[in-house]
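Reader question, answered in our methods column.
A reader sent in the components of a multi-part assembly and asked whether the whole thing could be modeled at once rather than chain by chain. We filled in our standard form and ran it. Here is what they sent:
COMPLEX SIZE: two components
ENTRIES:
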Amino acid sequence: EAGVTQFPSHSVIEKGQTVTLRCDPISGHDNLYWYRRVMGKEIKFLLHFVKESKQDESGMPNNRFLAERTGGTYSTLKVQPAELEDSGVYFCASSQETGAYEQYFGPGTRLTVT
Amino acid sequence: GQNIDQPTEMTATEGAIVQINCTYQTSGFNGLFWYQQHAGEAPTFLSYNVLDGLEEKGRFSSFLSRSKGYSYLLLKELQMKDSASYLCAGDFSSNDYKLSFGAGTTVTVRA
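And here is the structure of the entire assembly that came back:
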């Protein structure tokens, strides 16, 4: 069984540009989470999808961030326009169904905004 | 936040035992997770405690005291491959296992 995959693994962009991160969860997993770790800080929750619906987006920092999950499969996280403080590692995680507590994490996308 | 606190670093010798403590605010608490993360890799699930007590899984054990807001991860018979960051995370959400992480404890195993 393939694990959670994320693309790209690294992205370097200039302030003001747009970047789109992609996450492919484990096949059949209804729950998809986005987390972020900025330099020197703990991993923080961004949002949670159940299938194609946003269950909880309380962690999204501002309206420059837009997350989508087309057809309840893969998800994208767009940052537009990117700011310096958006630099960090963005993790995606998935879990199987409602009530499933074990989240499987992807390797993350390292975003650097210069 | 939920004030997840854990030590920054710990060092131990191969074959020894290390205990990583984690404290958290008890308000709204549902359960406690431990994840292992090797440098540059994905965090991987180690354990989930909901009830008080010790849960053992091979060389790794996790303990929870809900009333004290305290957990620990016990790593026995340390191996070099156990050198990693260990993340304590609490679930304080109503229904979706939204994890609140501590900053992580970097464990270095020496030969």
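What stands out: DSSP finds no helices and ten strands in chain B. The interface with chain A takes residues 4, 31, 33, 35, 40-45, 48, 87, 89, 91, 93, 96-104 of chain B (CB under 8 Å).
Send us your own complexes using the same form.
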